[in-house]
Structures are given as C-alpha cells and as structure tokens.
Amino acid sequence: QVQLVESGGGLVQAGDSLRLSCAASGRTFGNLAMGWFRQAPGKEREFVGAISGFGSSAGLADSVKGRFTISRDNSENTVYLQMNSLKPEDTAVYYCAAFFTYNRRYYYTSNERYDYWGQGTQVTVSS
C-alpha cells in the first residue's frame, strides 16, 4: 500500500503562487510514477501534471503549461506542484496520485493508470 498526503492548498488571489506537496510512504518512492489531477465542482477530474520515477521526464496539461511546474525529490519521498500566475479557473481540489512501476523513465497522463490517491487539497483562486 501507498499512502499519499497532500499539503499546500489555500485561498489566493489571481496572479499569486502556491506550491503543493505530496508526501508518499509505503513503497520505494523511485518506483512510483506520480501525477497531479484536479477536480472542480460539477466537472470531471482532469490531468494536471505527471513525472517519471527518475524525475527525468514530465508532462503538463496545456491549460497549465508555462505556469505550473512538477518536480520530485526522491530523497524526501515528495512530489511538488509549483503553481504560478494562478487564475480563477484553476480553482479545484487537487489530488496527488501514484502507481508502482519498474519503468522509471516515463510519465503517465491517464488517471486510470493510478492506483493510489491522496485525500485532496483545496485550491481557491479569487479574481
């Protein structure tokens, strides 16, 4: 089993920044492909960003490219989502997700690949 605990959400104004963290435990962190997803009220959960086990490859949704960055620190068993230039449309519950894989070179964008999910952290951006 893998436990994921997100932190760093909050209420900010448009243009502000936040950094979300997700601490993982239970499996070798470097073998966990990690992702961030979000869900706004009345909408389906959507992909935000993902990163490979090595941290050498990563991808972001088009809606956040140029504003968000995903990274990981395998020595700290933590993945981060740095969010800059936040917009009201970024308002959502943000979820950290993981699955175990021996392929540490690739990242994965489909939520169907992920087996473990955090409890979510609320991000609210006011205009």
Give short descriptive properties of this protein.
mainly beta, 7-stranded mixed β-sheet, globular
Describe this structure in words.
With 127 residues, the protein is mostly beta strands. Helix content is 0%, strand content 50%. The protein is built from no helices and eleven strands. Strands 2, 4, 5, 6, 9, 10 and 11 form a seven-stranded mixed sheet that branches. Strand 7 and strand 8 form a beta hairpin.
Radius of gyration: 13 Å
Principal-axis shape equals globular
**Got a strand count?**
11
Cα end-to-end separation = 40 Å
Q: Beta-strand percentage?
A: over 45%
- Count of helical regions: 0
What are the secondary-structure elements, in order, as H or E?
EEEEEEEEEEE
**Mean pLDDT value:** 96
Give the biggest sheet: 7 strands, mixed
* Class by SSE composition: mainly beta
- Outline the low-pLDDT stretches: none
Level of helix content? under 10%
Care to give the gist of this entry?
With 127 residues, this protein is mostly beta strands.
Provide the fold topology.
Elements: E1 3-7, E2 10-13, E3 18-25, E4 32-39, E5 46-51, E6 58-60, E7 68-73, E8 78-83, E9 92-100, E10 116-117, E11 121-126
Parallel strand pairs: 2-11
Antiparallel strand pairs: 1-3, 3-8, 4-5, 4-9, 5-6, 7-8, 9-10, 9-11
